[in-house]
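Lab notebook page, bench 4
Experiment: in silico fold of construct C2
Operator: M.H.
Input chain length: 380 residues
Purpose: comparison with the prior construct
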Amino acid sequence: MAKNANLGQAKAAKNDEFYTQYADIQKEVNAYIEYNPDVFRGKTILLPCDDPEWSNFTKFFAQNFEFFGLKKLISTSYAIESKKFKEGYMPSLFETESPQYDIDKTRTHGKIFILDYDANASGRIDIDDLQWKYLEGDGDFRSAEVTALCAEADFIITNPPFSLFREFLLWLLESKKLFLIIGSMNSITYKEVFPLIKNNQMWLGNGFAAGNAFFRVAGGTSADYADGVYDVSTGMVKFRNCCWFTNIDHGRRHQPMTLMTMADNLKFNKKLKGQTEYYHYDNFDAIEVPYTDLIPKDFDGIMGVPISFLEKYCPEQFEILGIDGGDMGVFYGVGAHLTKQECHDRFAEHRGFRRGKLCYRDCDHKLQMCYRRILIRKKQ
């Protein structure tokens, strides 16, 4: 069984490319189609980090081009010489058998693939109609060449390099387009990300099956990852804290959670065993809710919940008020009434305490630090 590992560990690996499975893309996109069958109709999709010779994103949207009613599909690839991982590269027959194949450009230039008409006169538009050429540059999403493609796109969809997630998101937001991307759940705590979630400008997608994301890698060994993450026999890596981020609406985010009262949770839920009440934070006027299923339906005050709450967050049911941790926590009022020295004196027993971090005292009056918490309140 793979241990719980985060995508941050992938930054240290030589290979920064993780290829999403076709079934995972299908599961996610179907959630948007089910909510709005015409969501992609007449639209142009840009896949700025996707080579159809490797990526399933291009394959998926090309195969469903007519079913979704797409107007145009554009995908771009990144030159092998610009990647961190270069071992074992071989151009595909799709490229080498083309008249425009260039033995030098195949390593130094990115490629652009366009699908917008029945090129082979087969009677339908699909992956066999993809047209391609070499880009002028290496295909970096930050280049002026790729950025210019945003102008004609309605949607930007991809699995960006994990180590460049922050930079990719900023690039994406500048485009002001609808998007669907993959990233680490921990990205929620980034100062560039959380305000978007709080203000309902970005939310989590439908999600991976059972919360497990399996990616294919072009190379690497088990030594590049935490124990149990890399499966040598399949060449797949498994991450538990990976999610989809989007600003495209889907039905799951409008399904309110079914909750119990505080009394019932304290009486019947084993996760609160030994407690006679919900703990109250020492440095903020809110209660500690360690698991999403422990959110009480009869409490109208502020609650601190795990970041995984966002997987079930319904904006019609709850309001997101802030997040704890460091300066961002202080910004949202956590420990803001205490000076740094007062925090040190009051919580000196816990060496790991930092101002802006939520904490509470348990049944034995022992100071407990919380992992990142999102501050929420029930909507009336």
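Observations: The first helix runs from residue 22 to 35. DSSP finds eleven helices and 18 strands in the chain.
Next step: discuss at group meeting.
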